[in-house]
Amino acid sequence: MKNVRVVVVGAGVIGVSTAVCIAEALPFCSVTLLADKFSPDTTSDGAAGILFAAKFPDIPVERQKRWFKDTFDHLLAIAQSQHSPEAGVMLSSGWQIFKEVPAERKPFWAESVIGFRFMTEEELKRFPDHKFGHAFTTLKCECSSYLPWLENRFRKAGGHVEQRSINSLQELSNSYDIIVNCSGLGSRTLVGDNQVYPVRGQVLKMEAPWLQHFIRDGDGKTYIYPGMHSVTVGGTRQEEDWRLDVDEGDTDSILKRCSRLEPSLGHGKVLSKWVGLRPSRRNPRVEKELVQLPGRRVHVVHNYGHGGWGVTLAWGTALDALGLVRQCLQEMPPQAKL
Ligand SMILES: Cc1cc2nc3c(=O)[nH]c(=O)nc-3n(C[C@H](O)[C@H](O)[C@H](O)COP(=O)(O)OP(=O)(O)OC[C@H]3O[C@@H](n4cnc5c(N)ncnc54)[C@H](O)[C@@H]3O)c2cc1C
Ligand SMILES: O=C([O-])CC(=O)C(=O)O
Question: Domains in the chain, start-ordered, CATH in brackets?
Fold first, then answer.
């Protein structure tokens, strides 16, 4: 019998991953995935989905390495299985190039990706504005395929899905024993966290099937990511910019910057343009608290604020959130679990 009621708020890559981890690991819990937007309408759906991350300042690097590696290993198994095309997960090789040698020449995730090395002088000749680079094989996880695939896995594990918007956690406190908050930028209003803010990103999908290797400028503003059906080119990182409409000035700038790195893009065709708001925060919030709501104290597990690295860290932080849910269960009085 299912006797503990858990609700996961948010159906982007963080919420769906977290819901799957809980539903599969804790079969005695009844798990509901509740969100106002599902795939294909979440921020996660438009992400390039490359597994790559910058370091958060205040989280022990060992924990960040685990988040990266747990996600990498989980997605690598999918990329190397018959599920790869349906789940939209594939291996992706290429270069990250720098105009100046970065302070940390080797990123913290270098051991987690495949075949990480510094680029040779010969390879760098292709990029005359750049003087240093990384060559490696990582993964690309296309959420417009991955999220429906993962939602299906959630349903198979007995999970329930509900589409609606909530204005406060209080609306859930009578119906659920544990609330897991994966609402991304929505946490600003849902739990009043002003530390989470938007970083606007615009990308284009292009038809250029001859491109097979990714190229990313180390400043994170210009990148070319070949995918399963098109090439994602970008981008922008505009802090505190809430505009969701396509900016044609950004489109021109993206095409100009990317064509400088890969001149053959001039022969590609723009298929679509997209804007998303990264749910950015100085550090992601992956922690639990006991919240006093009118008439009831409720366990809340937070998992949001992954900025530009949500796809990269989704499975790893979902496993941490699962661990926090287990802790909540241990702290609950026995009758609450009946
Ligand atoms: C242009 C661009 C490119 C990117 N490329 C990459 C990349 O290559 N690699 C990478 O790792 N990351 C990338 N990212 C970052 C990535 O998209 C985010 O980190 C990730 O999508 C965050 O996932 P999330 O589930 O927290 O948020 P979201 O996908 O925004 O989901 C939030 C969910 O919460 C729900 N919600 C919010 N408030 C409420 C409420 N009050 N009631 C009910 N439901 C609510 C929403 O409906 C939604 O379902 C990119 C982002 C952008 C914009
Ligand atoms: O930075 C990148 O290479 C892609 C990405 O994660 C983003 O645009 O947020």
Answer: 4-90+142-196+282-337 (3.40.50.720)
Q: Within the chain, where are the H helices?
A: 13-25, 43-46, 61-79, 84-87, 121-124, 143-156, 187-190, 248-261, 310-331
Q: What is the pTM of this model?
A: 0.97
Q: Per the structure block, which two tokens stand in for 330?
A: 């241990």
Q: What is the pLDDT of residue 1?
A: 47
pLDDT of residue 300: 97
- Which residue, chain included where needed, has tokens 């989905």? 49
> Residue 208 is encoded by which pair of tokens?
């250029």
Give distance in angstroms: CA of 201 to centre of ligand 1.
12
Count other C-beta atoms under 10 Å from residue 31's C-beta: 29
Q: How far apart are CA 80 and CA 132, in angstroms?
A: 31
Q: Which of 149, 263, 148, 167 shows the shortest CA–CA distance to 215?
A: 263
Ligand nearest to the backbone CA of 312: 1
Enter the ipTM. 0.99
Pocket probe for ligand 1: among 43, 75, 189, 280, the residue whose CB has the most ligand atoms within 8 Å is 43
Q: What angle do CA 38, 229, 135 make, to 5 degrees?
A: 100
Report the b/e string of 235-273 with b at 16+ CB within 10 A: bbbbeebeeeeebeebeebbbebbbebbeebeebebeeb
Specify which residues 16 forms β-bridges with.
none
Pocket of ligand 2 (CB under 6 A): 48, 50, 52, 201, 216, 220, 223, 234-235, 278, 308
Average pLDDT by stretches of 10, the chain with 338 residues: 88 98 97 98 98 97 98 98 98 98 96 98 96 98 98 98 96 93 98 98 98 96 97 98 98 98 97 98 98 88 98 98 97 68
Predicted pLDDT at 338: 47
SS3 content of the chain, % helix, strand, coil (to 5): 35, 30, 35
Name the closest-CA residue to atom 2, ligand 2.
220
Which bound ligand lies closest to the C-alpha atom of 274? 1
Distance 305 CA to ligand 1 centre (A): 9
